[in-house]
Each structure stands twice: as C-alpha cells, then as structure tokens.
Write a structure and sequence with these properties.
Elements: H1 9-54, H2 60-84, E1 94-96, H3 98-106, E2 118-121, E3 128-130, H4 132-150, E4 153-159, E5 163-170, H5 200-210, E6 214-219, E7 225-232
Parallel strand pairs: 2-4
Antiparallel strand pairs: 1-3, 4-5, 5-7, 6-7
Helix pairs in contact: 1-2, 3-4, 4-5
Amino acid sequence: RPVAEGGGSEVVEVGRAFNAMRERISRYLTERSQLFSAISHDLRTPITRLRLRVELLEDEKLQYKFGRDLDELEMLVKGALQCVKDTDIHENIEPVDLNHALDCLIEPYLPPNGNGRVSLDGRAHAAFPGKPLALRRCMGNLIDNALKYGDKAHLYIEDDDEAFVLHVDDEGPGVPEQRLEQVFEPHFRLSGQQQGYGLGLGIARNIAHSHGGEVSLQNLRDGGLRVTLYLPRNAD
C-alpha cells in the first residue's frame, strides 16, 4: 500500500519517492503479465492451424510425431505464462516411464536424420513417481543445453532402489570452476560467449528440487561438461 506523505520535509520526500517506486513496479508487473498473455495468445493461433494441417497427413506415424511435438509446444507456452504468474503447471504425481520419455526426447537426434548427435547408455529399472511433463521438460533442457553448447550429448543412466541418476556429457569447452554455480542464473554469459545459458539449467534445477532432487555440474577431465540429474526414489 502507498505510504502517507506527511511529516517533515525529508519524510515527505522519502514517502513520495517510495510511492513513485511502488507505482513503477506495479506498472512493470502489469505490463509484463499483459505481454506474456499476448505472446501466449499469438502462439496458440499458429499451433491450432498446424494441428489442422497435421490431421490431413496420410502417414499416421508422421502425424503422431507432429502431434506429440505440438502438444509439448502448447505445454511450454502454458508453462511460460504460469511461470510469470509464479505458479507451476498443475500435475498430479504418477508413475513416469523415464525410458519412454528419454526415447522421445532423443529420437530426432538419432541416425540417419540426427547424425547420431545423442547417445544413450543404460536404462531406468522402474517407473519414477513424479510429474510427467515437468520431468520431461527437465531432461529435455539438459539435452538441449548440451547440444547447444557442446555439439553432442552423451547420456548415461544409473538407477537403483535409492535414486535415478542421469548424466549428460557434452563435447564443449566446459565451464571455469568458479563459474559452475553462476550458469544456473538466467542469461548468464561466459567471457567471449555471445549467447547466455538461458533459462534451461535454472528451470531444470527447480524441477529437480520440486522432486527432492538436484542438478549439478562437473567439468570432465578429458574436456566437456557433465550435467547430473539426481532424483531420489524415496523423497518425501
């Protein structure tokens, strides 16, 4: 609430400055919400148009793949809007087939079309109790990050009764040790790098935390960066 602008001259000046700041912040938050609402609305129109075109495809397999990607795109638009409102996409906890989720995520990068930019070693031994779309987004962000900054993504799974662990190794230059935590910050840039790390790693870590887990970084001895997703199976 605005403060009363009364009292001595200095108190009045401080009160006036506080109220002006409050009004600017309020206007900024309103404009931000309106902007994301407009973006969300504008994106839904071409998505709907694409869905109609997909239904005309005769190849059912291709139709399924396009439909799956459009479902994910629509959820990302919805998720971005809800993140602005400081909420999360509501999902019930259910058994998640992590193997199926990973297979869908890496399929576009496998030979012949993907030129083998992603490899996968190991499998989850059992379903994981969690939020399906959130976990898919978490793992997808880690893979996308490795491909963007390290050209290739090598996935290794370790799974037992205690935890599901996914290592995502890339072939990039790595990150200076003193900057390993900073890359989780939005749009953080390393020296000489034109593009920032974006929101992907931060979002992935937040999703891991919501499942009682963690995302950590480690430079590999032979070069490249390892991003590790740790999800405990007995989290409260």
